[in-house]
Q: What sequence folds into this?
């Protein structure tokens, strides 16, 4: 997640300003140390013309110029981060911050929206406009190697443009303190070669028709009774209560926004002990359910959450 390893133009600009600040601060520090040593080792100065000039130049003119130069440079770089004069058609996604996970929405042609969680699939080498908002408190969307962070504010939508230079996987993190599990609010961006991201969307949408009709069996019934108020299995439909959509669950690399690696074991561990994995998260415990019921739900999810 290092900003010093930029993988996009925007992150490159952020890294540039970081290095300018770093070397600038180092030079100022060196000057201050030399001055400090000089002051300590020489006879006390007598007030005079030389001293006044020194204070005027070193204490007022020099800092004003330095800060002014940094301001102009910062404004110029900030301007360069805005998607002006880029005639390429951006890919559009929507991200909604929740305590403590990310809802990812892909608007489709024809008005439908596919809903996913904690993992973003986009094309590499193409600008992506991320429309960011929040369902509860203020969060901040940040994938350090992709570019600047942007706040997720309830009732307001901010847009940040990102672009992955190369296909790959990039980690992100909520970067505005949002409560107990703020640090446990991780997200993952997968930049695909060519149209690879469409395969993901197709599976997400395709599995939904099946997921929507809950099917028969003990797992389906137990899911409907205990889980479906908060979790949808249909990527086109949100659940009534805010919980991450479980459509396309098996395609995710981790569960609980980075809490545990996904897989047969991870899923069962999440279901039985998510409050010790991610203390305080907003999913209730299900200790009152029999282990067989949990197992039936897990098996059902593995089959339906494709
Ligand atoms: C009151 C709402 C609520 C209920 C009921 C509920 N959950 Fe959750 N669930 C959540 C929330 C909120 C999260 C996100 C936790 C986090 O990451 O902070 C979550 C996360 C999950 C995840 C991880 C998804 C991911 O991709 O990170 C799974 C799997 C899951 N729940 C399964 C279930 C199952 C199975 C049941 C029924 C036995 C259930 N949940 C009942 C609210 C609920
Ligand atoms: Cu946060």
A:
């Amino acid at each position: 997640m290092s900003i010093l390893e930029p993988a996009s133009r925007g992150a490159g600009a952020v890294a540039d300003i970081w290095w300018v600040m770093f070397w600038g601060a180092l030079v100022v520090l060196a000057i201050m140390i030399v001055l400090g040593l000089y002051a300590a080792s020489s006879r006390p100065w007598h007030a005079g013309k030389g001293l006044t000039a020194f204070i005027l130049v070193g204490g007022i003119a020099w800092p004003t110029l330095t800060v002014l130069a940094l301001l102009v440079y910062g404004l110029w770089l900030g301007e360069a981060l805005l998607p002006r004069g880029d005639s390429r058609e951006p890919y559009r996604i929507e991200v909604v911050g929740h305590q403590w996970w990310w809802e990812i929405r892909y608007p489709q042609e024809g008005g439908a929206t596919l809903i996913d969680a904690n993992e973003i699939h986009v094309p590499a080498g193409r600008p992506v406009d991320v429309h960011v908002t929040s369902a509860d408190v203020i969060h901040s969307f940040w994938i350090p190697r992709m570019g600047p962070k942007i706040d997720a504010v309830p009732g307001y939508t901010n847009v940040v443009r990102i672009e992955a230079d190369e296909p790959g996987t990039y980690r992100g993190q909520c970067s505005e303190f949002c409560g107990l599990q703020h640090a446990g609010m991780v997200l993952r961006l997968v930049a695909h070669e060519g149209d690879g991201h469409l395969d993901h969307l197709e599976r997400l949408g395709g599995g939904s028709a099946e997921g929507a009709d809950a099917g028969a069996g003990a797992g389906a019934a137990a899911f409907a009774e205990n889980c479906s108020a908060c979790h949808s299995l249909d990527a086109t439909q949100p659940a009534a209560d805010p919980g991450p959509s479980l459509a396309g669950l098996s395609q995710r690399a981790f569960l609980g926004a980075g809490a545990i690696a996904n897989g047969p074991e991870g899923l069962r561990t999440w279901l039985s002990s998510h409050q010790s994995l991610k203390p305080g998260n907003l999913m209730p415990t299900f200790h009152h359910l029999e282990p067989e019921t949990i197992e039936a739900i897990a098996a059902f999810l593995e089959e339906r959450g494709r």
